[in-house]
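Memo to structure team: turn this sequence into structure tokens by end of day. - J.P.
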Amino acid sequence: MAKNGKDPVLVILQMSGGNDFMHTLIPYTSSTYYDNRKLVRIEQEDVLQINDELGFNPNFAPMKEMYDEGMVGIVQGIGYPNSNRSHFRGMDIWHTCEPDKVVTEGWVGKALKELDPNGEDELTGINFGIGLPRAMAVPGVPVTSVNDLDTYGLLTGISEQDQRDQALQIFKEMYGPAIGTGPVMEYLSRTGIDVLRGADRLKAAPAQYSSDVEYADNGIAKSLRDIAKVHTAGLGTRIFYTSHGGYDTHANENPAHPKLLQDISGAIRDFFDDLKAHDAADNVVMLVFTEFGRRIRDNGSGTDHGSGGGAYIIGEPVAGGLYSEYPSLKSEDWAKGEDLEHTIDFRGIYGTMLEQWMGIEASPIVGGNYEQIKPFK
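Reply from structure team:
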């Protein structure tokens, strides 16, 4: 229970593609950064300094504002042993907490099962985006997935039959190899019924909502605005999930990455300003994560898949600051000889959010006991 007597709410925001952590939270006094980043670099005078060693990318300015206000905890060096550099497998590991084998149940779905043991409320967990993240997929756990709150529809907000079939086919291809197409289709049919029920109840949210906050015209701003609409409508949702794509910056990182950071940090800033204006911010915490960081050395156009990355825990209940340790920049400490080595296991951060914020026992969900941090006031 949050201190104000309201149920705690968790918003999970996935930066899909592997965000360049070293180019987001920059070790601006380190020769390692500048020696290895001939192209993908921010000059020292442009870094938004937070201490004598680290500073934010200037395109992350709204995040710096929130950090200065004490509402952002930065988890440095998040990852897991022998990081998998495949997007699909890497994200799969983050979604299921299982690095060694492919499993069917996602960590968020397991948490939803604890919050709603009988699967009675299809709005306890909502995904805003196309399809359903594997993190939320657990048989018997109802989840509503909405692409556009104003034009909702089955699974994705897709109304055209062929587009809807295509989305279902993508889902089947993602999950079929792991659990067989039979269980996938059974799961989808159940999920479809849950989504239709949930969508009917969600109609109320846009009608009740008005705001003076002007969100930007981009996908992640729209998704976070939709989350604000549902949260302020008081429909009882405990976990929201959404994604922001485009972080696979092998090429053309310099033109692409600034807009990604501007869009996501601006949307997060507007989202929390919106909740505050509605007196609805004090029981919401956001976890922002990505499947891996990028390599220490740039490739002359962008950066390739790496290891140790960064996560962000944001909200009024958060005690802002730096958590865990920035990965060692000494070459002898690099993972695989070219990556930042992780300094804290992501399962410990999930455990932190589950136990310290949501009040759910973590070890059965994350598969063991891992080091936690203390990011809450």
